[in-house]
Design a protein that fits this description.
homodimer, alpha/beta, Rossmann fold, 5 strands, about 50% helix, elongated, DNA-binding
DNA sequence: TAAAAAATAAGGGTTTTTCCTTATTTAAAA
DNA sequence: TTTTAAATAAGGAAAAACCCTTATTTTTTA
């Protein structure tokens, strides 16, 4: 085993300081090969801290965060810092979320209830191999692919439940006590268009009611509680 | 400063292993005066691990957990192990939740985004003084009291928004895609009674729509995502 | 056990949500 | 510049949600 010339630089992005500090503590215990160079509360915070001079090898990233969530952060990173590898650490286990994140190019996905041992495996794997694929991830992907093949009109290769910007905007507002008419006003759209968005989401997400929409939004970190 | 004869025994109850391990790591760093004697995934898990021979001084308890949540756990502890002190560590910051927990007799309430320093202060305070009251807690209590005094018919001393068993049952079902009629069937009640429950909750919780109900339930850990 | 309080239920009406189908406008691709 | 595709919008109707008032039953309390 030869000498490691440089420490592996990490950054932590999570809106719960206690979790972040705990995570940092666990990482410190893994040994001196890892160094947490900074922590951020959310994507916005990360944007201000991240510079070419101060950039980590791997970012451990939460999804559900205020101001700027994991999705937006990964997208931003992929254009501005494409060399940084992202490892998601989230409590969200939903297939849609995992698959969406992988499509965006994250290098691994950990649930917050894994063993600390898996954290170190993930970090090593992402740094050395460039990715960390577990049975968890494979299972989600497989299931997603299988669903794509059932000929429901959404499948054949492209994203079956990937929501576009407008739908996400709508979904966030649907997750409030606004009436659909009020949402239409907010979005400067006809109530009938809103009607269409709702129906599209119902079909895409296999949901039957507005409560379902709200719950989906929460589960997938589109809104914060 | 004199010798501490006995370590302060702690137990951690949280459904996210990585958070638990991080928390344990932070506690271990506080010094040898604290010892985490066991960890549990949720209330049910705690029930099976907790015996008179194996009981901690302080339990650090999450709220939103599957199987058995923080509310039920605290209630159970207060009858079966009244001497154990409970310190809530949750991401929930809603006044209702904080106040309800305090009414149930927890000795302190920490949000998951506090500094680790506050964790150690809280543990010391709970162990030495029996409680840990912060401005955060006082603020919530004060606000709750002030609301009680506005003569809205719910106040005068008793719980203004404490939900009873039946209302909680209903709320959980309302947080689904079931129709109110279907909920009535499930609960073996008339749809008109359900109507009454909904209206009562709307008023108590200052909510205007079913989406609001669902969101409230999620925020307060009545349902798990 | 009588009175008070809480839980359960009904009547009846308004608004919002939900579900179809089809049409127009705008943007992208060939 | 056609052809296609995507976003936006309309009409019309049925179901569900929402709201207010009052009545009955059950449970608690005095």
């Amino acid at each position: 085993m030869f000498h490691q010339h440089q420490k592996i630089k990490l950054a932590l992005v999570d809106d719960h300081k206690l979790f972040r500090k705990g995570l940092k503590s666990l990482i410190d215990m893994l040994g001196p090969q890892y160094e947490v160079i900074f922590e951020a509360n959310n994507g916005k915070d990360l944007q201000s801290l991240l510079t070419p001079d101060n950039s980590p090898d791997i970012i451990l990233l939460d999804i559900n965060m205020p101001e700027m969530d994991g999705f937006s952060t990964v997208k931003w990173l992929s254009t501005h810092f494409p060399l940084i590898k992202t490892l998601v650490v989230s409590m969200v286990e939903k297939e849609e979320t995992v698959v969406s994140m992988l499509k965006l190019g994250v290098k691994g996905y950990l649930c917050k209830d894994v063993e600390p041992k898996e954290l170190s495996e993930a970090l090593n794997s992402v740094y050395n191999k460039g990715f960390y694929y577990t049975d968890f991830i494979t299972g989600k992907l497989l299931h997603a692919i299988q669903q794509d093949n059932n000929g429901d009109g959404y499948g054949n290769g492209n994203q079956s439940y990937q929501l576009n910007e407008r739908e996400r905007d709508f979904l966030k507002l649907a997750c409030s006590e606004l009436t659909y008419n009020e949402i239409a006003l907010q979005m400067s759209l006809s109530p009938k268009t809103i009607d269409g968005y709702r129906n599209a989401l119902f079909e895409k997400l296999n949901i039957k009611s507005r409560v379902g929409l709200a719950l989906y939004a929460v589960k997938n970190g589109l809104v914060h509680l």
